[in-house]
Amino acid sequence: MALVLNGAPAAEALTAGLAPRVRALRERGVTPTLVILRVGAQEESRAYERAAKRACTAAGVESFTVELPESAQMDAVLHAVRSINAEPGVHGALLLRPMPFARTERAACRVLAPEKDVDGVTPASLAAVFAGEAGAFAPCTARAVLELMDYYGIDPAGKRVAVVGRSLVVGRPLAMLLTARDATVTLCHSRTRDLPGVCRGADIVVAAAGHAGLLGADCFAPGQTVIDVGTNATPEGLRGDVDFAAAQGVAAAVSPVPGGVGRVTNAVLALHTIEAAERLSKN
Ligand code: NAD
């Protein structure tokens, strides 16, 4: 049976390590603060928002929501983002996505101040991640995959890693982070030929495609680590992209959904907000 890579202990260890940094900030009169911008009231966004706030509270980070109606036009959304940029008491901003209008979402990501971009959505943050700059804010989920692997002592250096999914939220930035950690990365997507064969040939498989149970028994090999980023609402509840039972029967280690990467993602959001507060309060 494969080792189950639970996210909770990794998130708890990460959060515990933040306490002295939060204390040092508070002693200087700085309360690390995250603002969550939500347009509309989609239940998935609200659930993510609640989880993010819980993780912030656990880490000693203040958080509050700016809520705009579903019908909010581009001007109103950009005005809210600019107000966040200008507010000295706010160190990090999480723009909940998807927003009702894709064009507005893209514009909001461009307008957000990179120094407050704790979820790595701005072109400047992504460019810094791609250039391998130290201190770049990567999308929290991408960094969470590495934090989870680090916690369980899984070193990607020199390993063949198949990343399934090439979105800018997970797959592509993760491929860059893994490359910076000396992995040999194959970035797979919906047009990849023989996906099971590519996955079987990897030492580490990361699934981030958004299709419940996409990776089945034919995708896994003995000794592998399988990290499941997928979170798919199904009639049976939340499911990952990996057939968990199949992976557990073949691989050496597999992360569950729920209870895997998602838990760590929220802890990384708190970590990034603290990093932003440290940098902004030095100026
Ligand atoms: P997306 O739809 O933007 O991108 C999906 C990617 O998967 C695309 O690059 C596509 O080419 C690829 N893909 C789709 N079908 C495929 C197939 N059959 N074979 C191979 N590749 C395929 O999705 P996203 O925003 O990157 O999210 C991916 C998944 O990760 C979703 O389930 C999402 O809910 C989840 N997610 C989880 C967290 C977390 O913290 N746990 C955070 C963000 C996203």
Walkthrough of the structure:
With 283 residues, this protein is α/β, with parallel strands linked by helices. Helix content is 45%, strand content 16%. The strands form three sheets. Strands 1-11-8-7-5-6 form a six-stranded parallel β-sheet, sandwiched between helices. The protein has a three-stranded parallel β-sheet with strand order 3-2-4, with helices on both faces. Helix 2 links the parallel strand 2 and strand 3. Helix 6 packs across helix 7 and helix 6 crosses helix 10. It is globular. The N and C termini lie far apart (51 Å). The mean pLDDT is 97. Nicotinamide-adenine-dinucleotide (NAD) binds next to helix 10.
Topology:
Elements (H helix, E strand, L loop, with lengths): L2 E2 L2 H21 L5 E7 L3 H17 L2 E7 L5 H13 L5 E4 L6 H10 L11 H8 L9 H12 L8 E5 L6 H10 L3 E5 L6 H6 L3 E4 L17 E4 L3 E3 L2 E3 L4 H7 L2 E2 L6 H22 L1
Parallel strand pairs: 1-11, 2-3, 2-4, 5-6, 5-7, 7-8, 8-11
Antiparallel strand pairs: 9-10
